[in-house]
Design goal:
single chain, mainly alpha, DNA polymerase, domain 1, 5 helices
């Protein structure tokens, strides 16, 4: 395993292999991580450093849900780096995601009638 893995190399490798539908979102997440953690070696990331970056994101006005999406992106990148032998362990596995509010429930016409009948 190499002693140095620059974030640009690993992030670009992840995006090159990405086959999902949201490539534009993935590219946006990449740009944000490069901005928030410039010139970083991914093998030097620690849970503490990642917690500090999440705090920075919150200071920039990002919601917990948005921060979770960015952290989720980095988790996927680092999981791939671990699978590829570029990283020994993924430091994000030691970080808890922010709690997110439950989504809104949309009732069908039948369910609406049932709820009204129960009143």
């Amino acid at each position: 395993m190499s002693q140095f893995w620059g974030q640009e190399e690993v992030l670009e490798g992840y995006l090159a292999a990405f086959t999902g539908r949201s490539l534009r979102d993935e590219q946006r997440y990449k740009r944000a991580w490069v901005f928030l953690f410039p010139e970083a070696r991914l093998n030097a990331l620690t849970p503490t450093a990642l917690e500090q970056i999440r705090g920075k994101m919150a200071e920039l006005g990002r919601s917990p849900q948005t921060i979770n999406r960015y952290v989720g992106f980095l988790r996927r990148v680092l999981n791939k780096a671990v699978r590829d032998g570029q990283l020994a362990v993924n430091p994000i596995t030691k970080i808890k995601m922010f709690k997110e509010p439950l989504g809104k429930t949309i009732l069908t016409v039948t369910e609406t009638g049932t709820v009204r009948a129960g009143q």
